[in-house]
Amino acid sequence: MNVTFRQLKVFESVARQLSYTQAANELHLTQPAVSMQIKQLEDATGIALFEQLGKKIYLTPAGQEMYHYCRGIEQQMKELENVLEDIKGVKRGHLAISVASTANYFATRLLAAFAKEHAGISFSLDVTNRATLLRQLANNEKDLVIMGQPPEALDLVTEAFMENPLVVIAPPDHGLARQPNLNIAQLKNETFVVRESGSGTRIAMERFFSEQGVQLHTGMEMTSNEAIKQAVEAGLGLGIVSIHTLPLELETKRLVILKVKDFPILRHWYVVHRRGKRLSPVAQAFRQFVLERAGEFTITAPL
Ligand code: PGA
After folding, report:
1. What is the pLDDT of residues 269-302, one digit of tens each?
2. Which of 20, 121, 146, 168 could form a disulfide with 258 if both were Cys (CB 3.0 to 4.6 A apart)?
3. Span 50-56, mean pLDDT?
4. Which of 102, 137, 162 to mutate to test the pocket of ligand 1 (most atoms within 8 A of CB)?
5. Residue closest to 68 by CA, chosen among 48, 91, 96, 49
6. Backbone angles phi, psi at 182, to 5 degrees
7. CA nearest 268: which of 193, 166, 155, 151?
8. Is there an atom of ligand 1 within 6 Å of 244 CB?
9. pLDDT tens sequence across 131-162
10. In whole angstroms, how far apart are CA 210 and each of 87, 91, 145?
11. What's the predicted TM-score (pTM) here?
């Protein structure tokens, strides 16, 4: 059945008023234009929709069915219009974001603050390591990604919004804990508990030490910052983590930051998406929110 919205609109008006003249006035059309649309609709459906008895027109049974469905369609179009307006105004929609596991220490607070201002929006948050984020970007799986140094190999729109200092952590009773001016060479004899090889923290740490010409002694490998902190606390070695992961442990004095020359390793957080991606209104609003307000929702330990 090949009917157009325009034909349905004209039909609805004629059927409601049972008058070609009144429909023509209402729709600012000529009466022959209205008759033509109805004729085309009857041709397309293959059945008469009106019958004329004397001067009056009536709906045929098929016309009554058509009228019933037309009103449903009209109602749905109105609803669709409202929904689209809501989406444009960021009153509803869905936001799928992915963040580096280290960024999750502030990303959930950011999301919560954004959600408060946009009550109709639903969210999905994937917390994963750098290697998975890169795959998700390559496959265009997420609206936005929050990560450390973005790769140059992918064509991305990236914007830095906050510093991400990496520090050396130790338990408070460690021999180096009270020394004010450590140099990197003094770390050579220590064992380090490190993140898994797909982690941005791990990559940054390895690059830093290789630039310094220092070969680190790495012990256990762990897939989360929480595990690293626990391991360091338990005396399994030193660790290198983002300052964003530490406020609680520093406050409760379960860990300390070692004062090592050339530290912290200074990195940044970026909000990232593929170039050419059409960001939804909610994704645009969240990106703006991150760029302007991330600092407000981030607790950082003093260095
Ligand atoms: P990650 O952090 O170590 O949790 O992957 C991301 C990054 O710092 O790039």
Report:
1. 999 999 999 899 999 999 999 999 998 877 666 6
2. 168
3. 94
4. 102
5. 49
6. -75, 145
7. 166
8. no
9. 899 999 999 999 999 999 899 889 999 999 99
10. 49, 49, 28
11. 0.79
Mean pLDDT of the chain: 93
Tokens standing for residue 34: 């209205």
Architecture of domain 164-266: 3-Layer(aba) Sandwich (3.40)
pLDDT band at residue 303, thresholds of 50, 70 and 90? low
If one residue of 130, 226, 271 were mutated to test the ligand 1 pocket, choosing by the most ligand atoms within 8 A of its CB, it would be 130
User: Do 150 and 270 contact (CB within 8 A), yes or no?
Assistant: yes
Q: Which of 60, 66, 34 is nearest to 48 (CA)?
A: 60
Helix (H, G, I), strand (E, B) or coil at 70: helix
In the CATH hierarchy, which top-level class contains the domain 84-162+268-297?
alpha beta
Cβ distance 169 to 256 under 8 Å? yes
164-266 shares the fold of 84-162+268-297: yes
Q: Which CATH architecture has domain 5-72?
A: Orthogonal Bundle (1.10)
Q: Write out pLDDT tens, residues 35-49.
A: 999 999 999 999 999
Q: What per-residue confidence (pLDDT) applies to 302?
A: 63
Is there an atom of ligand 1 within 6 Å of 148 CB?
Answer: yes
- Exposure string for 54-87, b = 16+ CB within 10 A, e = fewer: eeebebeeebeebbeebeeeeeeeeeeeeeeeeb
